[in-house]
Amino acid sequence: MRHAAMVCGVSIALSAALVVNFGGQPRRWIGSIGRFYTGCIYFGCARKEPWTEMQPAHFTPETWNRLVASLPNPHLLQTWEWAQVKARYGWTPIPQVWNDVNGQPVAAAMLLKKTIPAGGFAARLSLLYVPKGPLMDWSNAALRARVLDDVQALARRHAAIFVKIDPDVVLGAGVPGREDAREDTNGQAVRSELSRRGWRFSSDQIQFRNTVLLDLTPSEDELLAAMKQKTRYNIRLAQKKGVTVRIGTAADFPVLYKMYAETSLRDGFVIRDQAYYQTVWQIFMASSDPTCEPLVAEVGGEPVAGLFLFRFARRAYYLYGMSRGLHREKMPAYLLQWEAIRRAKAAGCSVYDLWGAPDVFEEADSLWGVFRFKEGLGGRVLRTLGAWDYAPNPFTYRLYTQIIPRLLDVMRARGRMKTKRIYAGNE
Known about the structure:
427 residues, globular, Aminopeptidase, 18 strands, single chain, alpha+beta, nine-stranded mixed sheet
């Protein structure tokens, strides 16, 4: 899973270059995850104030998640639990709901806010992010306009350098250039509207733009038949070679993280420290919907591969996968995915999101090998809008986007070195 570190150190450079009056102070977050600042917007009726504040008691984890699940394309990253994870790492969750004239929710967004102290200036700059949201019927032009208006107003209200959204608005399905590829006219219309409004396609795509989805509604036999022949062969080979898969527990976290570190070094991506992933896994494992469970593939009782299977609103997600170089010829990853598919289907999921596909579908892409593996499982490519940024102050945004990539390069290099030390057993 991709992620970007939002570096508070950038405030030194920003505050040195900026003397900007951002207006009133944004509301400050005080307290634990159970005390979100919440808001409700009434769509389609006259009102004097653009924001009507709700009492925190209006949302519990269960009521928020039920609300999210009731909207089009509900996503794991818009759940209360994901906000709880981010709250432990410096983000303030700000849930927002849009109701129709009958008081029924028609849109929602779990915004995440990161505050950047701007040196000695009175203003406190911030970043806003809506992971995989806002959630709504994006084909409803009037609702879409209202939600975007309010999100833009919220960015100004919170003195945000920018607000980033990356909703699952579909641009097309299938690999471009192939016979079965299809384009989505509504997605193209949304993209055009964002451009007209002054939103920018983000250079920092925190989540994958494209993914591979597997339809779980067919029978197990039909799912196997839809896989590529080589994939079916490797599943049977793993079974024949003695690979077994079991449900993991919290006791497996250390070995799973070490395998993840090995995977990151082998495949050339940067991961966070163990405490971060342990926080994610523990929070979701303690919940029922959303939830997650670790699956561990073993050979002779020795762990050789693993994954965390997340579930929410009848959709399963493959966020984290890890493996060792040991026993790779026995194809444990294939049997592991087959067991994940079976468990997701048995739990009532209708779709399995294999989480990530190349931006450009060429063999030179670093994700090409992983994509071919996912495609072999019978999945179909879904191409989405990606992340877009709205910047109330374009100058601040340009300055930020010039500084952050350099800082991230340094942090990623340090992250790779730390991962090597962890894998070597020196930390």
